[in-house]
Design goal:
Elements (H helix, E strand, L loop, with lengths): L1 H9 L7 E5 L2 E3 L10 E5 L9 E9 L11 H10 L2 E7 L9 H18 L7 E5 L2 H9 L6 E5 L28 E6 H7 L3 H4 L4 E5 L2 H4 L2 H13 L3
Parallel strand pairs: 4-5, 4-6, 6-7, 7-8, 8-9
Antiparallel strand pairs: 1-2, 1-3, 3-5
Helix pairs in contact: 3-4
C-alpha cells in the first residue's frame, strides 16, 4: 500500500487520491489522532486545470502548538483541486527534550526523514504557521526547498509564545536566497516590523484582513498569486 501512495505522486492521469497515514500504519480517517507523526497526502483530481510538479508541504505540530495546524487542511484541499500535490505533515511532539535547539533539531530530522521517505521528486515549497514556522526555518537552514511561506511567525525567537521553547533559541541567520514570503493579518503587521525576514526587501509580504481571511478566499488567492510569481 505504501508503494501505491508513492506512485500516485508521479502518475500523470489519475483520480483524486487522499491518503492518510501515520508512522504506525495507514488509516482512512484524516481526523484520527495518533501519538506518532501523521500525514495526509492529496494529489490533484483529473478535473484540475493543470498538474504542478513542485509539491506543497504543510508542516505543523499540533501537539506542540495547536495553532500551527489551523487552516492546513483547508489549504491542502484547495490547492490540490488547483493541481498541486499537497502533503500535510503533523509532527509528533517529542518527549524529554531539554533545550530548544535540541527540540528544533529533532523536528528538523523528523521532517527531513519523512520528506525523503515519500520520495518527492522536486524540492517542495514549505508552508507553516505560528510555532511551526520555527520548524520550517530550522529545516530550510540545511535542506533544499523551492520556496518558504511563513504564516503569522513570531516577530523573533525571543518572543515566541510562552511554553513553546524550553530555553532561549538563537535567532535564525540563513540567507533567503530562494523565494520566501511572510503572511500575516493587518493586526499582526505592526509586530512583524521587527521580524528580520519581514524587513528583507526581497521577501514577499502578504497581508490579509483578519484571521478568517488567512484561510479564506483572500488568503488562498494571494498565496497562489505568489506561487505563480515564483514559477511554481
Amino acid at each position: 500500500m505504501f508503494s501505491h501512495v508513492l506512485r500516485t505522486v508521479g502518475a500523470r492521469a489519475r483520480p483524486h487520491v487522499v491518503t492518510a497515514f501515520s508512522l504506525g500504519g495507514f488509516f482512512l480517517n484524516p481526523s484520527r489522532h495518533s501519538s506518532s507523526t501523521a500525514y495526509l497526502l492529496r494529489t490533484p483530481p483529473a478535473s484540475a486545470p493543470r498538474e504542478v510538479p513542485t509539491p506543497l508541504v504543510f508542516v505543523s505540530s499540533s501537539g506542540w502548538d495547536a495553532k500551527s495546524r489551523d487552516g492546513m487542511s483547508t489549504y491542502a484541499s484547495w490547492y490540490a483541486e488547483r493541481g498541486y500535490t499537497c502533503l500535510e505533515i503533523d509532527l509528533a511532539k517529542p518527549r524529554d527534550v531539554a533545550t530548544s535547539e535540541a527540540l528544533m533539531k529533532h523536528y528538523e530530522s523528523e521532517l527531513a526523514s519523512h520528506i525523503r521517505t515519500l520520495a518527492i521528486p522536486f524540492a517542495p515549497v514549505i508552508v507553516s504557521r505560528a510555532g511551526s514556522t520555527l520548524i520550517a526555518q530550522t529545516y530550510i537552514s540545511s535542506h533544499p526547498a523551492t520556496g518558504l511561506l511563513l504564516i503569522s511567525p513570531p516577530p523573533s525567537n525571543a518572543v515566541a509564545p510562552p511554553g513553546l521553547l524550553p530555553t532561549p533559541l538563537p535567532e535564525f541567520d540563513f540567507e533567503p536566497r530562494f523565494p520566501c514570503a511572510v503572511m500575516c493579518t493587518q493586526r499582526e503587521q505592526g509586530a512583524l516590523e521587527e521580524n528580520r525576514l519581514w524587513r528583507d526587501p526581497d521577501v514577499h509580504k502578504i497581508v490579509v484582513e483578519d484571521e478568517r481571511a488567512v484561510v479564506g478566499q483572500e488568503g488562498v488567492v494571494k498565496i497562489e498569486q505568489w506561487l505563480d510569481e515564483i514559477g511554481v
